[in-house]
Amino acid sequence: MTLRLGDAGGNGTATHATWNLRLYVAGQSPRSLAAFANLKRLCETHLKGRYTIEVVDLLQHPQLAEGDQIIAIPTLVRKLPEPMKKIIGDLSNQEKTLVGLDLIER
Amino acid sequence: MPATTATPSLRKTPSGIRGLDEITGGGLPAGRPTLVCGGPGCGKTLFGIEFLVRGALDHGEPAVLMTFEERVEDLVENTRALGFDLDDLIRRKLLAIDYVKVERSEIQETGEYDLEALFVRLNYAIDSTGAKRVLLDTIESLFAGLSNETLLRSELRRLFLWLKEKGVTAVVTGERGSGSLTRNGLEEYISDCVILLDHRVTEQVSTRRLRIVKYRGSTHGTNEYPFVIDRDGITVVPITSAGLAHPAPKERVSTGIAHLDAMLPGGGYYRGSTVLITGSAGTGKTSLAARFAEAACERGERALYFAFEESRDQLTRNMASLGLDLERHAKSGKLVFSCSRPTLVGLEAHLSGMMRQVDAVKPAVVVVDPISSLLTGSETVAVQAMLIRLVDHMKTQQITLLMTSLVDAHAALPGTETSISSIVDGWIALRDVETEGERKRMLYVLKVRGVGHSRHARELDFGDGGIRLLDTARAGVSTPPRRAGSKRARK
């Protein structure tokens, strides 16, 4: 089951492209649910109005793991903007997640 | 070769790797993981791939290859040269390859996770092909890619248990560590069967060795076995475990020299026996060997002549001056030459090459001239092991084997030959002796197992009448002739 969520109709500025995020899970495990919740919260905080989250359940679609080279669950993949970034874990460490997504301003 | 061992409780999966199933008593433990470890370039990846390929081609068992090192295209390309057509197997759905790329720089770890996706991928590949064999090469790459070692180890433990439950026979490769079998201690999780591969360069010649470190629940050969990798894949060269149960023919074959035949009651060597001819340079070893081969051809048999010091042309020419017509028999196909430099390849490669040629040519007699060339730069133990293997192979096929060996003229008794002499059935020594200002070539029959033989020396003569043995009285040696009525030949 893939789920598309987003607030694409918000006040997206022309200079920021929409972020495409894909979260790979394996069923509804506590970790997977936690990752999704953490991700949603983070996106609403930092990317409001310019993100889409796609959830890919590998137990339903095992063949999709190979394409993005997924070995860990949960794994968050930033498909857009490029370059692709991969973050593994339940995203409980917000700072590391932001660094991984390259959202932290330097 | 039986596919399963006699032990009722432990099933084995035939590996299909030449020689390995003999040492392991049937193959790898079925439904369990086997760890194959060794340094870089030792052949572990190829070992695993051959296991998969043989399973698919010989037993119709589909396989999954999960590679952490090479991309699929590279893998297919690199194994093509060794005779494996992975593309074809993939097309026929007998093989699925999944390349798992783990790049630490690409991954940020942000909390709790597990490796469930890896399980998902492996499970998917196994289910979609119905695979019975799996290769994980090399799972240690995960250690380089992920920093949470505790998690990784517990997931690996889970993975190997999962593989057992899945019922697949898996080969897992590991990098050799210093102080431990594998760099990351995989042997802690895979303990049913552990095989160690080694690749050494000794005296500029590369040799490969395989050793079964552990095989739970089964007896196995515990020695180091040499193996070669060539265009047919891997061949392990075990000392045959068949023991000494060879058929012992009663028939004799002529030595090619009537007088020498006369020294051996019955008229020659036992068919299927092994004879060694030693002597210093120029004593006539090659002449005796060549004459023996020629005599076989004259009987209508095929002879295979391995020459390690002279080329075919040199041999034919030199022997022609003694009245031997090797060229004629070579042309008719009865005499097959195989000439090569002994240092070109390692001992094991020589042995497997020789055995392959014997199987292809199917000769009645084989000549190795000289075996001493193979001694150069090799450990005597390795040579002896190789010789035993060679002699065994000949005896099993009842091929009469004649080997020449160069010895030091000043040694009272041939040195290293004493170890070879215990393996052979017959031993003829040639020696130059100086008497009254003349040099004479003497022939001594030192040993002929199972046949009474004349215990004195005869002089060897190469004249227009061919190769002859002169009577000892003429040769000036004071031992009285044993044989009544022995011929007196005129020089």
**Order of helix and strand elements from N to C terminus of chain A:** EEHEEEH
The proportion of strand residues of chain B reads: 25-35%
Major beta sheet, strand line-up of chain A: 1-3-2-4-5
Q: What structural class results from the helix and strand content of chain A?
A: alpha+beta
Oligomer: heterodimer
Order the strands across the largest sheet of chain B as they lie in space: 5-4-7-8-3-9-10-11-12
Span from first to last CA of chain B?
Answer: 57 Å
> How would you sum up the global shape of chain B?
elongated
Care to describe what's here?
The complex is a heterodimer of chains A (106) and B (491). Chain A is of the alpha+beta class and 106 residues long. Chain A has one domain: Glutaredoxin, CATH 3.40.30. Chain A has 2 helices and 5 strands; from the N terminus they run ββαβββα. Chain A has a 5-stranded mixed sheet, covered by helices on one side. The longest helix of chain A has 17 residues, at 30-46. Chain A is globular, with a radius of gyration of 13 Å. Mean pLDDT of chain A is 84; it is low at 6-15. Chain B has 2 domains: 12-236, P-loop containing nucleotide triphosphate hydrolases (Rossmann fold, 3-Layer(aba) Sandwich); 252-475, P-loop containing nucleotide triphosphate hydrolases (Rossmann fold). Chain B has helices at residues 20-23, 44-59, 72-80, 86-91, 116-129, 141-145, 149-166, 258-263, 285-298, 312-320, 326-332, 347-361, 380-396, 417-421, 472-475, and strands spanning 12-13, 28-29, 33-38, 63-67, 95-99, 107-109, 133-137, 169-175, 193-202, 205-215, 224-230, 233-236, 252-253, 269-270, 274-279, 303-307, 335-339, 365-369, 400-406, 426-435, 438-448, 457-463, 466-470. In chain B, the strands form 4 sheets. Chain B has a 9-stranded mixed sheet, with helices on both faces. In chain B, strand 22 (457-463) and strand 23 (466-470) form a beta hairpin. Classes of the chains: A alpha+beta (106), B alpha/beta (491). Chain A binds chain B through residues 24, 26, 31, 35, 58-59, 62-63, 65-66, 69-75, 84-93, 96-97, 99-100, and chain B through 98, 100-102, 106-118, 120-121, 123-124, 142, 146.
